[in-house]
Amino acid sequence: MRVTRSVSPTVRYLIVGAIGIVLAVFVMQVLNRQAHEMAVARIERRTEQVTVSVQQSIESTLHVLESFQALYATSLNVDRKSFDTFALQMLWTHPEALRIQWVPYVVAGERADFEAAGREDYAPDFQIVERDDDGAVVRAAERDAYFPIYFRAPMDNPEGVVGMDLGADEARYAMLLDIARRGTVAASPPTRFGTDEPYTIYIYQPIYAQSPQPATDSERLDALRGFVILVLQASDFFAFAFNRVDIPGMAVAIHDADVPDVTLFETAPADMRESAFGACSSTESVVVAGRTWDLMFVVSEEGLWAEAQNSGLLGFLIVLSITVMLVLYLRQRTQAEAALHKYTRSLEEVNSELLAFNHTIAHDLKSPLAIIVGYADLLQDENLTSNGRRMLSMIPKMVDALLEMIEDLLKLAILRDAKAKVEKVDVNAVVQRTLERFGDSRDSIVIEGDLPPAMGHPQWMTEVFANLISNALKYRDDQRDLRIYIRAKPEGDRVRYEVEDNGLGIAPEDKARIFALFTRPNSSDERGLGIGLSIVQRMVTKLGGHLGVESELGKGSTFWFTLPKG
Ligand code: ADP
Asked: Which protein residue has the closest C-alpha to ligand 1 atom 21?
């Protein structure tokens, strides 16, 4: 406390403000870091969900090939018209697929029959063809087997395509035989026919003469009848798969795991991904038809913050507001403290003036009063008329009343700071001593039974009894003879002393007021100043007791006080 008081308020506000700002920044950073981590975790979960969804989308496209497998299981002799109808139907429900082709497996001995059938289905010059070194379409060279494109839906740009032998390329020839032997759907690596062309992926479904397909590699090759090939335009296909999933604030790129240089699909170009993006990245893989496609997700800083939802800023603002409120509170408290300090000082000044005033009354007022009484005594001896003598006799009485009031005021002032030395008091003796003060009036006072001892202060208790008795005498009812009873009753670990009279009594609404200083129900009443009960109250309270009254107007009052048992 002492330290803060020596620091000026402005410096105090500055210190609190600075601590608040530092704390706010710290809270912001902690919350930001936490939000960041949570956002990254959320994004990773999202990319996993997206990957699963993409995988499902691709698998659902591959159902097209299962449908063809079922078609060929019912009959191997699917003609051009049936194939087209079936394939177009499939493409209509799967807009993500570009084309479906039928490529029969034609061994050397079947070539002539196959070409004859082709001339029926297409043109009189139909034959199995290939491209020579110059790119020109020529009749396919003799070899063990051919894989000519035969049906094709939709049949756009058929020139030089129908009859084209896919087996003309040695590598592809080997690949097709390999797929046939393995007997599973297989996807090709991305291929394109010119640098301006988009990348295409072929998915091969081998069709066998037997259903279910034979069990061993060589049996499968023997039973091979051809391939249904699903042609996919890579970027369109993956765009379709991603269209169905919501990935705001994220960029995605897809690569074939074996051909990482080729980007199959991307939502933002690589250079943009690396500069603007790159706050957080993760790679997931999709394995379909024997190929692995890597999905690389990159999240932009903004995307990440959108996820983080600015909780750090919120925390900063909250702590900052608390700081501002604290500073305002401190300022207000300092001002209140200063006002209180000022008020206390002025009260202290008033109080010391009052003490000085008391002192003056005690010492200075008493002596002129004594002189007045002295002169009045001397005047008694002078030759005065009887009227003069009567008036003169009033002076000492009035002076006595005045002195009594001054005494009371002084007692009250002294009592304020006085501390009672509590001791066991013989109350019977105290009351007897008190009664001595009342001369003839004693006759109307009755002490009922024994008054047990109490823990108190003999002088103060004498004052208490004297005050209560003198009030009973003052506020008597002239209609009847005054009777005052003094008695005591045990009350747990206390004794309750009572002074009962049959005087004027007190109205219920006045009961609470009479104990307040200078308060008299009847302010024109000249019998007192309203100090006595305040003195009694202070004394009893300081001795650890309680003071109270029971009264009925016109019947009398019982003033009581309690004290710890002696
Ligand atoms: P005062 O100097 O006026 O007697 P007190 O504080 O002793 O001051 O009393 C306050 C007021 O309580 C008195 O003015 C009077 O109206 C009332 N009072 C006190 N004692 C009695 C009593 N025994 N009977 C009736 N009224 C009383």
From this structure: 471
H/E element, 201: strand 200-208
Residue nearest to atom 13 of ligand 1 (CA): 520
Q: Where are the beta strands (DSSP E) in 72-144?
A: 99-104, 106-107, 129-131, 137-139
Start-to-end CA span in the chain (Å): 45
User: Which residues make beta-bridge pairs with 152?
Assistant: 101
| Pocket mutation for ligand 1, best pick of 533, 540, 555, 560 (most atoms within 8 Å of C-beta) | 533
CA 105 to chain centre: 72
Peptide bond into 154 cis (omega under 30): yes
In short, whether 533's Cβ falls inside 6 Å of ligand 1 is yes
> Cα of 24 to ligand 1 centre, how many Å?
66
pLDDT tens-digit series, residues 313-369: 888 888 889 989 988 998 899 899 999 999 999 999 888 887 777 777 767 777 788
Instruction: Please indicate whether residue 418 or residue 257 has the higher confidence score (pLDDT).
Output: 257
Q: Is the pLDDT of residue 4 over 80?
A: no
Task: Establish whether residue 525 lines the binding site of ligand 1, counting it when its CB lies within 6 angstroms of any ligand atom.
Answer: yes
pLDDT in tens, 430-467: 999 999 999 899 999 999 999 999 999 999 999 999 99
Q: Which three-class secondary structure string do you get for 30-91?
A: HHHHHHHHHHHHHHHHHHHHHHHHHHHHHHHHHHHHHHHHHHHHHCCCCCHHHHHHHHHHHH
The residue ranking higher by pLDDT, 242 or 502, is 502
Least confident of 214-218, 431-435, 504-508: 214-218
Please report where in the chains the tokens 């063990």 appear, as a residue: 144
Beta carbon of 521 within 6 Å of any ligand 1 atom: yes
CA-nearest residue for atom 15, ligand 1, is 520
Residue nearest to atom 23 of ligand 1 (CA): 472
Q: Is 557 in the pocket of ligand 1 (CB under 6 A)?
A: yes
Tokens of 279: 């706050």
Closest residue by CA, ligand 1 atom 14: 520
CA of 471 to the centre of ligand 1 (A): 6
**Distance of CA 533 to CAs 308, 445, 566, Å?**
74, 20, 24
Is there a contact between 564 and 457 (Cβ–Cβ < 8 Å)?
no
Nearest CA to ligand 1 atom 19: 471
Is the beta carbon of 78 within 6 A of some atom in ligand 1?
no
Ligand 1 pocket mutation, candidates 404, 409, 467, 474, criterion most atoms within 8 A of CB: 474
pTM (predicted TM-score): 0.53
DSSP string across 303-356: HHHHHHTTHHHHHHHHHHHHHHHHHHHHHHHHHHHHHHHHHHHHHHHHHHHHHH
Nearest residue to 241 (alpha-carbon basis) of 88, 100, 97, 93: 97
Q: How far is CA 313 from CA 37, 40, 316, in A?
A: 16, 18, 5
